[in-house]
Amino acid sequence: MGFRRQSRELALKMLFQIDVGSLAPRDVILYFLQEVKASPEVTGYAKTLTQGVVKELDLLDRLISQKAKNWKLARMAGVDRNVLRIAAYEMLRCPDVPREVILNEAIEIVKKYSTEDSGSFVNGILDKLLVPDSKKD
């Protein structure tokens, strides 16, 4: 497993705790980075993703909500919601990572930590983020 996959999974765990546990981002990040046995490359990218999602949460949630027709963020499973946030953040702020890789990784991670159906759900929303609405019609 590549370092970015490990980083995304670690970021998911941190964001899930922040989101569902209503814990302070700084405390969660410090705890995980002290407790996790991973390379500096893995923890560094995980921290970047987590802090980036927290910082841009309103924007990311707005973008996801616009594409998730008939789904409110609060109704989404916590894992699905946070995988979507990570992927949306990477699509916006990590131009060195191919968008197709981001999409595939998000689907694999959500299948691992959520349900088999979550893969299709996440794929549908992220696919809409990849292609502007005008090209989907």
Give helix % range: over 70%
Number of helices: 8
Radius of gyration: 14 Å
Order of helices and strands: HHHHHHHH
Distance between the termini: 37 Å
Can you say what the CATH homologous superfamily is?
NusB-like
Overall description:
It contains eight helices and no strands. It has one domain: N-utilizing Substance Protein B Homolog, Chain A (Orthogonal Bundle). The chain is globular and about 40 Å long. Helices cover 77% and strands 0% of the residues. By secondary structure, the protein is an all-alpha fold.
What's the layout of helices and strands?
Layout: H1 3-20, H2 25-35, H3 40-55, H4 57-67, H5 78-93, H6 99-113, H7 116-130, H8 133-136
Provide tags for this entry.
N-utilizing Substance Protein B Homolog, Chain A; 137 residues; single chain
Outline of this structure?
Helix content is 77%, strand content 0%. By secondary structure, the chain is mainly alpha-helical.
